[in-house]
Amino acid sequence: MAAVDLPLTGAGSRPGAGPGPGVITVDAGGAYSLRVFDAGLACCGVEVAAALRRAGALAAAGEGKEQSGPVNVFVVAGTVTDKLAPFVLKAFQDTPPPRRVLSFGACSNSGGPYWDSYCVTKGVDQLIPVDVYVPGCPPRPEALLEGLAVLLRSRGSAGDG
Amino acid sequence: MTGGTPPAGALPARSRGVIALLEENCTACMLCARECPDWCIYIESHKEPVPGNEYGTGGDGPMAEPAASQGGDGGFGAGPDPASGPDPVRGPAGRGRQRVRNVLDRFAIDFSLCMYCGICVEACPYDALFWSPEFSYAETDIAALTHEQARLREWMWTVPPPPAHDAGAPRPGEGLADRPRR
Amino acid sequence: MVSDGLPPAVRCEPDHHGVMLRVPPEHWLTVLTFARERLDCDFFDWLTAVDEGGEGFSVVVHVYSLAGRHHVLAGTLLARSAPRLPTATGIYRGAAWHERETHEMFGVIFDGHPHLAPLLLPGGFEGHPLRKDFVLAARAAKEWPGAKEPGERSVPRARRRAPPGVPDGWGPS
After folding, report:
1. Cβ atoms of residues C69 and C91 within 8 Å
2. What's the pTM?
3. Secondary element (H or E) of residue A150
4. Domain boundaries, chain C
5. Which residues of chain A have pLDDT under 50?
6. Count of CB atoms within 10 A of residue C38's CB?
């Protein structure tokens, strides 16, 4: 499948449809099973949705060997405004351990283009510990999958417990 | 295989993955750092004299010892013959002026802030910044997303050749053939 | 003519989309009612304010007629010291959130609004961000990377000044 041949979303018209915590399999030198909780706050959420749909197709294609159970990955994709910050924090706290945090895109990395705004949290790491930062504005959907691979290769976690 | 690394060449032309720097073209003019809306380009530079162009180098400038010469030339002989054009090392007629150039010490882009707008690439008057389609540079530490000129140079080798102009597009008007005739 | 039926104090100017009505504040509701009833403007698009500096705040409304396909802009000017205007929610329900946002961003008070609470800003936010005298603190806190001249190692003390967008007196000392 060519990189730009992304599937149509289709979901969103029916309540409850669309990617929930998508279970995907990412090969990072061993097979892991991830449950991705996507906090799609802004434009980056579209790219994450695109990535998760494609990755779901990959998981169906081949079975991965689960090692030590699934890891919950909390993906923050989009601008974290000061008004929304408490809810992002709550959503992270509700993510069951073992959990990792992936910051997707410039806004959740550091505030990005809104670094000087009066109402933007300058990076979600001001609220929660972040394990991987994926740069981009927005990053490609493939960049999310590469970021997940980096996450799994890295040691330990800042978000457990 | 990781989920969906596109094969080489499959990304669209002019994909904005990362910004690469060709340091040889950079004169530290600071335009990219000034135009960047995110203030994410950090440049440090200093001035250095251009070697071989100091005033009176080689002793053949106007302050030189007069060479033996026939006839009175006022003691200002022994320089290069003005009729043959300026001396390439010492400047016209040996009157070299101390020239100074900017030397780039540090060129860093903070990709945690960068919004990939391309204003720096467009603003650069010397074509030192280029778009590369690379996107696999996620990091576990946000400070590691600030990349220095060594890494920016590595990405130069992934910059694709520019795509051809669209069929029927007007001439860009930048070539020598487009200059108005006098 | 559009202006038939409007108070004479209301100036009517052609706009590239339709008309722009310059309204004294005391005729604000009259004009909006006129736009809805007589000009068939049944679609409320937006309401916002503009910080005009010393002149005060101008509040501008854009309404549209779906049947007649014409746009009407209406604007009024409020004194900076007392920016008050009657609420448009009695005429256009859709103005409710727009007036809340204009209130929190500019400090304009809409009398009679059912719930003039902040819409987008977090609780405890001080100040009105879209006023021209509101400073973006992040620009004051970070040193501008473009301050140096080409080839300069550091900005000389005599030339140090606030970065673009930051008034003098702010900025890292």
Report:
1. no
2. 0.78
3. helix A141-153
4. 11-111, 135-173
5. 1-13, 15-20, 22, 25-30, 57-66, 159, 161
6. 12
- Please check whether residue C120 touches A, CB under 8 A: yes
* CATH for the stretch C11-111: 3.30.460.80
| Residue B109 and residue B70 in contact, taking contact as beta carbons nearer than 8 Å | no
Cβ–Cβ < 8 Å for A88, A80: yes
Tell me the sheet residues that pair with B20.
B130
HSE-up (13 A, CA, CB side) for residue B25: 13
Tell me the two tokens of residue B88.
Answer: 């390439």
Q: How far apart are CA A128 and CA A159, in angstroms?
A: 8
Question: Residue A119 in contact with residue A87, Cβ under 8 Å?
Answer: no
Rounded CA separation C136/C53 (Å): 18
Average pLDDT over residues B128-146: 95
Give me the mean pLDDT over the C125-152 stretch: 90
Supply the DSSP string of C51-92, one letter for each residue: E-GGG-EEEEEEEE-TTT--EEEEEEEE-SS--EEE-STTT-
Per CB-CB distance under 8 Å, the chain C contacts of B39 are 142, 144-146
The pairing of strands A132-134 and A22-27 is unpaired
**Which residues numbered 39-68 in A keep a CB inside 8 Å of some CB on B?**
51, 54-55, 58
Residue A86 tokens read as 């408490």
User: Who wins on pLDDT, B32 or A39?
Assistant: B32
Q: Which residues of B touch C152 (CB under 8 A)?
A: 45-47
Quick one: how far is CA B27 from the chain centroid?
5
The partner residue sitting opposite A115, judged by closest CB among B17, B113, B117, is B113
| pLDDT score of A126 | 95
Alpha carbons B49 and B55: distance in angstroms, whole number: 11
Q: Which long-range contacts (CB under 8 A, 24 or more apart) does A84-88 make?
A: A84/A41, A85/A121, A85/A127, A85/C122, A88/A39, A88/A41, A88/A124, A88/A127, A88/A128
For testing contact with chain A, the best of C136, C144, C166, C170 (most A CBs within 10 A):
C136
Question: Tell me, what's the pLDDT at B55?
Answer: 55
From the centroid of its chain, how far is CA A103?
A: 7
**What's the CA gap between C163 and C135, in Å, rounded?**
12
Backbone angles phi and psi of A62, in degrees to 5? -145, 140
| Entry field: residues in chain A | 161
Interchain proximity A117–C165, CB inside 8 Å: no
Q: Look at the block and give the residue holding tokens 């029927």.
A: B168
ipTM of the complex: 0.79
Type and span of the H or E element at C62? strand C57-64
> Across all residues in chain A, what is the average pLDDT?
75
Summary mean pLDDT of chain B: 80
Domains of chain A (ranges; CATH) run 22-153 (3.40.50.12280)
